[in-house]
């Protein structure tokens, strides 16, 4: 979810669900150790619980980065062993790390020694033509021996050569039974499943076999699906914010962010589109959704920096009390 789940996206999602864990986009160790730490790690206090996802393969660098994450107040450090992009592979991390479980174990141990918060691993079920269940079983077993107790399983192989990241999310077949078997083989571990999950019914079905579910693109393209999560999965019966209430809640946030960063961020300052672009799917499946998206994508109106644009977009829908 690089370039997708930034702090503005997460703040928007937090207005929809109070309890769901939110994950950052993958942040590389190099970006933290040699770049602008605040730019990569700053987040809103309302985002909790929130996890920092790291990309890297050097135990010492990951330990330093995890320590930074803990100091900034993150609730979990997650090591990405699932991203198949060529850019990530050139850095010798992401899905290609699945070929080196001993190295991943060293990375996990180094991070666990550096922080007191949870260190988790997100991974695929195999790489390239390695499709046996035994491969991912042995990978998880090795990392678990280093003290990791939570694994987020993207239930597809990662094809490291010949497929784009987008194709890697669609072409390799999903094999949820691999995640289910991991839970049976490692009942003491927390096993979460990820990959192609789009409906509440699918989530419910997976939860019959594993401990949790991670939603990726669907949470971005159809974010209001998460409005059902608090009551359904966390037992919170507090009133759910309507779509209109979410938009009203985001207005002061946009105003504050523009006042704070409008002239300070790299690239000419923060623009309102940097926030509203994450909100285009709020009306997915509702009457007037197209008009809503068109209004929030109007470059001339966005240039005004007026958060009232959210209410103008709302006015073009027929879902005022959805």
TrEMBL record:
Its EC number is 1.3.1.91. The active site is at 83 (proton donor). Pfam families: Dus. InterPro entries: Aldolase_TIM (IPR013785), DUS-like_FMN-bd (IPR035587), DUS_fam (IPR001269), DusA (IPR004653), tRNA_hU_synthase_CS (IPR018517). It comes from the Bacteria. Keywords: Flavoprotein, FMN, NADP, Nucleotide-binding, Oxidoreductase, RNA-binding, tRNA processing, tRNA-binding. PROSITE patterns: UPF0034. The record marks 80, 166, 169, 290, 293 as: Interacts with tRNA. It catalyses: 5,6-dihydrouridine(20) in tRNA + NADP(+) = uridine(20) in tRNA + NADPH + H(+); 5,6-dihydrouridine(20a) in tRNA + NADP(+) = uridine(20a) in tRNA + NADPH + H(+); 5,6-dihydrouridine(20a) in tRNA + NAD(+) = uridine(20a) in tRNA + NADH + H(+); 5,6-dihydrouridine(20) in tRNA + NAD(+) = uridine(20) in tRNA + NADH + H(+). Signal peptide: none annotated. The keyword tRNA-binding applies. Its cofactor is FMN. Gene3D superfamilies: 1.20.120.1460, Aldolase class I. One of its GO terms (molecular function) is flavin adenine dinucleotide binding. FMN binds at residues 53, 122, 154, 194-196, 216-217. Residues 1-306 form the DUS-like FMN-binding domain. It is an enzyme of class 1 (oxidoreductase). Belongs to the dus family. NCBIfam families: PRK11815.1, yjbN. PANTHER family: FMN-LINKED OXIDOREDUCTASES SUPERFAMILY PROTEIN. Catalyzes the synthesis of 5,6-dihydrouridine (D), a modified base found in the D-loop of most tRNAs, via the reduction of the C5-C6 double bond in target uridines. Specifically modifies U20 and U20a in tRNAs. This is tRNA-dihydrouridine(20/20a) synthase. It comes from Noviherbaspirillum cavernae. The gene is dusA.
């Amino acid at each position: 979810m690089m370039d997708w789940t930034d702090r503005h996206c997460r703040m928007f999602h937090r207005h929809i669900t109070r309890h769901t864990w939110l994950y950052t986009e993958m942040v590389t160790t190099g970006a933290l150790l040699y770049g602008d730490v605040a730019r990569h790690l700053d987040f809103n206090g309302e985002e909790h619980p929130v996890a920092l996802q790291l990309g890297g393969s050097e135990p010492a660098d990951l330990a330093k980065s995890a320590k930074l994450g803990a100091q900034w107040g993150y609730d979990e450090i997650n090591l990405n062993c699932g991203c198949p992009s060529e850019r990530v592979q050139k850095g010798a991390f992401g899905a290609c790390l699945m070929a080196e479980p001993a190295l991943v174990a060293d990375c996990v141990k180094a991070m666990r020694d550096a922080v007191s918060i949870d260190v988790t691993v997100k991974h695929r079920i195999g790489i390239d033509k390695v499709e046996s269940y035994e491969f991912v079983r042995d990978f998880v077993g090795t990392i678990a021996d280093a003290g990791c107790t939570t694994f987020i399983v993207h239930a597809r192989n990662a094809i490291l050569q010949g497929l784009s990241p987008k194709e890697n999310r669609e072409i390799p077949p999903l094999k949820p039974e691999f995640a289910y078997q991991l839970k049976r083989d490692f009942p003491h571990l927390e096993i979460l499943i990820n990959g192609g999950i789009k409906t509440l019914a699918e989530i419910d079905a997976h939860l019959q076999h594993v401990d949790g579910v991670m939603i990726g693109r669907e949470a971005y393209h159809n974010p209001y699906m998460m409005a059902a999560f608090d009551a359904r999965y966390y037992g919170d019966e507090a009133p759910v914010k309507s779509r209109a209430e979410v938009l009203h809640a985001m207005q002061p946030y946009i105003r504050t962010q523009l006042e704070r960063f409008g002239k300070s961020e790299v690239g000419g300052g923060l623009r309102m589109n940097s926030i509203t672009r994450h909100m285009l799917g709020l009306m997915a499946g509702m009457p007037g959704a197209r008009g809503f998206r068109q209004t929030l994508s109007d470059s001339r109106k966005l240039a005004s920096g007026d958060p009232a644009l959210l209410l103008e977009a709302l006015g073009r829908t027929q879902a005022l009390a959805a």
